[in-house]
Write the structure tokens for this entry.
Amino acid sequence: MNYEKEAQKGAVKVTFTVTDEEWNDELNGSYNRNKNKYTVPGFRKGHASRKMIENMYGAGVFFDDAFDACFKRVYTEMLSKEPEIYPVDDPQVDFVPSDKGLKFTAVITVKPEVTLGQYKGIKIPKVEYNVTETEIDAEIDRARERASREVEVDRPVEKGDKVNLDYSGSVDGVKFDGGTAEGQELTIGSGSFIPGFEDQMIGMKKGEEKDLQVEFPAEYHSKDLAGKKAVFHVKVNEIRVKELPELNDEFAKSVSEFDNVADYRKSISERMRKSAAERADRENENALMEEIVKCVSCDVPDCMVNDELEYMLRDLEYRISHMYGGMKIEDYFKYTGTSREDFRKARREQALNTVKLRLGLEAIIKAENIEATADDVKEQIRITAEGAGKNAEEFEKTVGERERAYLKSDALMRKVVEFLKTNNVFEVVKEKPAKKPAAKSSAKSGSSKTATAKAAVAKEEDKQ
């Protein structure tokens, strides 16, 4: 086998020439692998000669299988001799007319050449998240909320109370479907019922009955009731309030491993500050990577972008399934009114930048002669094991050669990122609260699946 190379834009065209003898060997190999599949009258399967099978089934009966084996052999052999050729996609193969043997070309899309701009000495705005005492108080208050209990009270209804009530609604003196209930739970001020209903219950006492005058909204889902005035006869069965536990040492013991409020508060402060620092580190690292992408110049092949999009789709599918009780990605797209194609279009630029960043980091590694030592790999094994909740020493025993190669690659990427952090300048220009503001939720929610899908969308967009 001989081959000739020809450089093309973003690719290498290789012309392979296989001799008569080599090609005949490939055909014989295909015959020996497949002869048991063919029936020839007068012969048991596997005992007819190659010529007899070709005469009966056609001269090209073994061609495809023989070529697949031949191509795999010569292509692998060529790549072993040409380490500078780094394929990023399956080659496009075409046959070339030849009087002898076999001749064909393979156009190989290769990893693009990268030109690096300035990747050291860049000034990057640094974000810091400060945890205030007020935020620590709020975190403790949330813990008290989680530990709260409901108790019955003997006083008139106030906003925020949870009321157990019976009600019966009518329009023009006629009761309507869905307008009657007993033992209904309602939090006053939640906006769960039609406007005016909850406000008119404020001041009612346990056992008291009252007619409430209300009007259905014009856009009410039931057209028969939309915009109509109604009367609801209600009876209060019970009034309950949320009782928060007192913030004392007993509370600290009940919700934590600490014996007093001071140590409990200190632990919350440390946890919140650590979380805020980690969040700032992630955002600052992302900002640095965005600057690195800007310094990378290369023509990224579509196949590499498409591969990254497929990875992103698989990652989304995995997260949705594990976070939302096995939800299928098809349901995700259905309930969000999107499709795989919409996802690919919306994320294409992100995928392109991800590929450019990866190529840029590889180029920086080469330019700076960065290497992953045995200690670096060991540290990466520790990080990976801890992330999976496993013992590092036990995990390392299970790592094979292939997995170790991946871990070495991860260690190398971690090392180049640390190099870039050290060789660029982060300037503090803004400080932010440690906590993101909570999103407001509607009192009237849609179906659980739709809400789940919307939550998935929010989480997906938070990652961008």
About this structure: The chain has 14 helices and 13 strands. The longest helix spans residues 261-294. The first strand starts at residue 2 and ends at 8.
